[in-house]
Design goal:
With about 350 residues, the protein is α+β, with helices and mostly antiparallel strands. About 30% of the residues lie in helices and about 25% in strands. Strands 4-3-5-6-7-8-9-10 form an 8-stranded mixed beta sheet, sandwiched between helices. Strands 12-11-13-17-15 form a 5-stranded mixed beta sheet, with helices on both faces. Strands 1-2 form a two-stranded antiparallel ribbon. Helix 2 packs antiparallel against helix 3 and helix 3 runs antiparallel to helix 4. The chain is globular. The protein binds 1,6-di-O-phosphono-beta-D-fructofuranose (FBP). 1,6-di-O-phosphono-beta-D-fructofuranose binds next to strand 5.
Amino acid sequence: MMVLAEAMSSQAVDFGITLTQHVLRKQHLHPDARGQFTRLMAQIGVVGKLITAQVRRAGLIELWGETGDMNVQGEHVQKLDRIANDTFIEVLRRSGCVAAMASEEEDEVIEVAADRAGDYIVCFDPLDGSSNIDVNVSIGTIFAIYRRTQPDRVVPEDILRPGREQVAAGYIVYGSSTALVYSDGHTVDCFTLDPSCGEYFLTGENLRMPEKTTMLSINESNEPYWPSWTKPWVDSIKARNDPQRRRISSRHIGSLVSDFHRNLLKGGVYLYPADSNNGRGKLRVLYECNPLAFIAEVAGGAATDGTRRILDIVPTGLHERTGLVVGSKTEVAGVADFIARHG
Ligand code: FBP
């Protein structure tokens, strides 16, 4: 009887590694772990589920369109931007793991009341790819996690600090499925949400960014505004294609998180230079560039603004922007070298 039960149970319980189980089994890598990071990652998973539910039903429950407000970025706030932002804030506030947070949608830092505060600081872009929300193209959430620097109060240096101080970073893509990718600084791992049981299962472990670039991601309509080095560099990439063989193709989804995810899996370089139209760059250091640069580096890739390593930038403001080049190490080094030669 026991043998049958065992056989039955092993067949019945054949399932993958969940997000929480994975974070738990990696706790030994963090000697001072007390379980708060595990709880925080689980709560970020909850944010992903709650936003997935809204995104999937948006067209049915009139969640497309704008709220009529403008955010601190000077952008029209989409209804789903607002919902994703409020959801992230409320879940983190209740988690007991966070002392303060900064959001792309919020003017100021949000501090958590002392009786609910925890050890971590979280910076996030609640919904990246806003221009794609209403047209059913994949969008995402991006987050960066730091340890607070003071035990009893939050200081500006808890937020305005170089990205290399992140203890973890990740993103959630709301595409054909919901995928959560995060790195704790040791590996980059991908989880897919199983809507039938509401659990994230490990579907990609220790992801490595392919060295070979097969995809170019840049908005070429910005060419009139590009700095002098960008066009010759883009042409040099296209020149890799010849009559015998096409070695490189082009994709610009318009959702950084989705373009980055594809390039992480398939090999590619994403570029959004600071140009004469967006001045110091379009993308935000804290909410977009730092977390993706952290993941790229752990996966063997690199990220630069053309002259500086993204993770060494010390932001002076909550909504500081920068140019971004992220991709394989060789490709990013090639861009920096190209800029140095073409200025
Ligand atoms: P938000 O949607 O969070 O504002 O992000 C900026 C972004 O939409 C990126 O996701 C994307 O890569 C880029 O801007 C697209 O910009 P553009 O439409 O100028 O190509």
